[in-house]
Each structure stands twice: as C-alpha cells, then as structure tokens.
C-alpha cells in the first residue's frame, strides 16, 4: 500500500509541478510585458476582422 501511495503522489507531483511552473512563468511574463503586449494585440485583432 505504501508503494502505491508513493506512486500516486509522484504521479500527482509530475502533473502538478509542470503546470504550476507554466502558470507562474505565463503570469510573470504577462505582468512584466503587459505594456508591450497590449498595443500589439489591438492591431492583430483589427487585421483579423
């Protein structure tokens, strides 16, 4: 039972850790480049429509 629980915990960590890292990096980059990204998004949306 202990081995099974450890395996489950490892599986959860292997799924949760990368997602947390990705979310943290996206949040950090978006907050950092907020002023740079916003003017770029507007012309791109205008071209599509």
Q: What would you note in describing this structure?
A:
With 49 residues, the chain is mostly helical. 94% of the residues lie in helices and 0% in strands. The model has no long low-confidence stretch (mean pLDDT 78). The chain crosses the membrane at residues 6-28. Keywords: Membrane, Transmembrane, Transmembrane helix.
Structural topology:
Elements: H1 2-32, H2 34-48
Q: What does the main sheet amount to?
A: none
Per DSSP E runs of 2 or more residues, the count of β-strands stands at 0
* SSE run: HH
Class by alpha and beta content: mainly alpha
Mean pLDDT across the residues is 78
Total helix count? 2
Global outline: rod-shaped
Short description:
94% of the residues lie in helices and 0% in strands.
Features:
single chain; 49 residues; mainly alpha; 0% strand; membrane
